[in-house]
Amino acid sequence: FIRPEQFSHEVFNIEGPKIGLNWASDRNTHRFGNDGVDKLNVILDFCKNLVTNYRATIYLIEHLMPNELNEKTKIETRKLFKDILGDSGKILFEELNQELYPMFEYTAPFFADIYKQMDLVVGSRGHASIVSFGMNVPFIGLGQHNKVKWFLEDVGLGDCIVRLDKKNDDD
């Protein structure tokens, strides 16, 4: 269990709903198959609708630092994020790099507080769902990763995962 420690920054001083997006960038093919970019586009289009209809700001909350295994995916993710969301999208790694990254035990309470400041979290990592749940923040679990699925089942929300591996509406 992590107790949140207050984390204040001007990037969060914005009117309107705050939506956290956690898109896993490691083991991308394992998580999303060969069409991870297409799936990310669908999620970002959903986020764009939240921006347009509710004046939301979308925060890309990354848990991992860039490394040789995920750097290409992180670059693609950040580019799509900015291309689709423009100024309504905030990449926390770029905004808060010196203050929060790399993530360590002593920065984890600040990340918990960042999740707590969100009005909704959309996440493809187990931690995004677990921390949101622990902070009493509504969340949408994405993908077919077992950690997300198992956690949602454990808390009685097994039907609330948005699977990204479905081929059509009949699945």
Please provide a written account of the structure.
This protein is α/β, with parallel strands linked by helices. Helix content is 44%, strand content 13%. It is built from 7 helices and 6 strands. The protein has helices at residues 28-32, 36-54, 71-85, 92-100, 108-117, 126-134, 146-154, and strands at residues 18-22, 57-60, 89-91, 120-123, 139-142, 161-162. The protein has a 6-stranded parallel beta sheet, sandwiched between helices. Helix 3 links the parallel strand 2 (57-60) and strand 3. Helix 6 (126-134) packs parallel to helix 7. The longest helix has 19 residues, at 36-54. The radius of gyration is 15 Å and the shape is globular. The termini are far apart.
Helix content: 40-55%
How much is the radius of gyration in Å?
Answer: 15 Å
Residue-averaged pLDDT, rounded?
85
Question: Hey, roughly how much beta strand do the residues contain?
Answer: 5-15%
Count of runs of 4 or more consecutive helical residues: 7
Which runs of at least 5 residues are low in confidence (pLDDT < 50)? Answer: none
Which structural class matches the secondary elements?
A: alpha/beta
Q: Which outline best applies?
A: globular
Strand order of the largest sheet: 3-2-1-4-5-6
